[in-house]
Amino acid sequence: MYPKTERTTAHRDRGRIGYQRAVVHAILDEAYHCVLAFTVDGEPRALPTLHVRVDDTVYLHGSTGSRPLLAARGTDGLAVCLTVTLLDGLVYGRSQFHHSANYRSVIAHGTARLVTDEAEKQAAMTALVEKVGRGRATDSRPPTRKELAETAVLALPLHEVSTRVRMGGVDDDPADHDLSYWAGVVPLRLVPGPPEPDAGVSAPLPAYLRPAHSPWLTAAPMRGEHVILEPLDLSQVDGLYAATAAPEVWQHLGNPMPRNRDDVAAIVAEALRAAHRGDRVPWVQRCATTGQVVGSTSYYDVDEVRRTVAIGYTFLGQPWWRTGINTEAKLLLLTRAFEELGAVRVVWHTDIRNARSQRAIERLGAQREGVLRMHKQRPDGSWRDTVVYSMTADEWPSVQATLRDRLRRGVPVAG
User: Residues 237, 271: contact at Cβ < 8 Å?
Assistant: First the structure.
């Protein structure tokens, strides 16, 4: 517990005030920015900035020329008030008076000092980088001496600290409960969107920027003798464009044939957005012998409760058709679905015009279930009838044995 002081003692809504060290630390660690308040020449100032907590000290990032950093150079340091707020929801009351918000906040009073020790400064900068992504400090260039000299860091010891928290529902007056207005809480949360790489970035997306999903929605790397499946990434666009630049590849797919690299990048970006939403699990296919990117495939329509998944969004460069690559890729995907995820049913959907795809799915051992009429539109605007195939967990053992035998004998099944 932090000690209660005159400045941290509440004068109203005392039930919302707290001093628990663990709660203070949790709020500071979850929040990415804070507001630092101080006075300059008798006038108030408030500076939004980045922060990180290391044990019982909060470090704040700034420029060596900023006012608080200049003021903190003195031997007495800089008197500050630090605030952090996490907004968790909007509370709608039946009366305007009882509209409110759910939130968690920290207020810290104290004297901030300028960090001059080079080792402490470097450690604080590393901690700031690690806060935005664990492992990021080793995945980026360290600052140069010139950059360190241009960057200032303030240290605020956590001594005089309190939390203020509002949780729960509407606090309307009982006399208003019969009013015919909607009342309740709209939850709010900070959710990262799909990462958007800078121009020219060729490095794959780091693991710490990939959304945390259940195993059903995770593109786990898989390797066979013919094919390697890796999580799809924008760094693979050039390879996909080069491998699939043939009209036959795109003839029955949901996208028109890409005209250039940017069109492929848009297809990959959409797949990654769907993956971020949890709607798809996309992989890139590489030749296990050469490492060359040759195509892509995905899980979709994932239903963890009903234990079903579909395999599709597959496109493969024409030179690798009727080789072991697509057959083994399907074997890897089926093995993961049935044996690792515990699926009871795997599904395929294909255009009724795509006879080659239907034959390939049937050679895998899937059973044709029927046709969904006018199921979706093709790129040319016509309506597509979709053929549905499935395979069940009961059928999987014999299918697996057959696929492995055909791969050993070099007889392609799918593709």
Answer: no
String of DSSP letters for 72-127? TTSTT-EEEEEEEEEEEEEEE-SSGGG-EEEEEEEEEEEEEEE---HHHHHHHHHH
- pTM of the shown model: 0.77
pLDDT per residue as tens digits for the range 255-269 = 999 999 999 999 999
Say if residues 59 and 155 touch (Cβ distance below 8 Å).
yes
Pull the structure tokens for residue 407. Answer: 């791969």
- What 3-state DSSP class applies to 163? strand
**Between the CA of residue 326 and those of 287, 289, 317, 357, 414, what are the distances in Å?**
10, 14, 10, 11, 6
Q: Give the single-character DSSP code of 236.
A: G
Using the CB atoms, write b or e for 288-310: b if 16+ within 10 Å. Answer: beeeebbbbbbbbebeeeebbbb
What single DSSP character describes residue 256?
Answer: P
The neighbour count for residue 253, using CB atoms within 10 Å, is 19
Task: Taking the CA atoms of 396, 398, 403 and 405 in sequence, report the sign of the dihedral they define.
Answer: positive
The DSSP code sequence of 315-359 is EE-GGGTTSHHHHHHHHHHHHIIIIIS--SEEEEEEETT-HHHHH
Q: What is the pLDDT of residues 216-251, one digit of tens each?
A: 999 999 999 999 999 999 999 999 999 999 999 999
Beta bridge partners of 62: 152
Q: In what order do the strands lie in the sheet with 293-303?
A: 222-223, 227-231, 280-287, 293-303, 308-316, 345-351, 383-392, 367-377
114: β partners = 154
Spatial neighbors of 391 by CB under 8 A, at least 6 apart, are 334, 345, 346, 364, 365, 366, 367, 399
Pairing of strands 345-351, 308-316: parallel
CATH number of 212-408: 3.40.630.30
- What is the dotted CATH code of the domain comprising 14-187? 2.30.110.10
Return the domain boundaries, the chain. Answer: 14-187, 212-408
DSSP letter for 378, please: -
In three-state form (DSSP H/G/I as H, E/B as E, the rest C), the secondary structure along 174-232 is HHHCCCCCCCEEEECCCCCCCCCCCCCCCCCCCHHHCCCCCHHHCCCCEECCCEEEEEC
If you count them, how many residues does the chain have? 415
pLDDT tens-digit series, residues 91-103? 999 999 999 999 9
